[in-house]
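Lab meeting, item 3. Inverse folding demo.
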């Protein structure tokens, strides 16, 4: 299973960060699969920010709930992250990842460095 991330690496403050994770080798609708977005701000630990399950249910980090959306496109076998009203504090290395249920990620995207700056 491979996860390929795409999206811009530079976003202006107040704009929307958009990243896509295209999956190959598995269907995003596979039973028990959980598709996550995780980020690592500079000098900080990895931070889970949200996920979407195989059945389309979404769960978000509480502090981001008003700004985050994760959705899937089964026809393209990908899932996407949108984070609105970004600030420099959203600058981070962003990863998509696959887990089976509530286990640690078994597959990761390559990572996308996103910088929020004017």
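The presenter then showed the designed sequence:
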């Amino acid at each position: 299973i491979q996860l390929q991330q795409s999206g811009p690496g530079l976003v202006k403050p107040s704009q929307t960060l958009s990243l896509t994770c295209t999956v190959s080798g598995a269907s995003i609708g596979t039973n028990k699969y959980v598709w996550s977005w995780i980020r690592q701000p500079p000098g900080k630990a990895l931070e889970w920010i949200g996920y979407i399950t195989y059945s389309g249910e979404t769960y978000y980090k509480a502090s981001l709930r008003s700004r985050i959306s994760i959705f899937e496109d089964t026809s393209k076998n990908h899932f996407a992250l949108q984070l609105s009203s970004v600030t420099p504090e959203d600058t981070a290395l962003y990863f998509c990842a696959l887990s089976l249920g509530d286990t640690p990620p078994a597959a990761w995207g390559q990572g996308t460095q996103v910088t929020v700056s004017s």
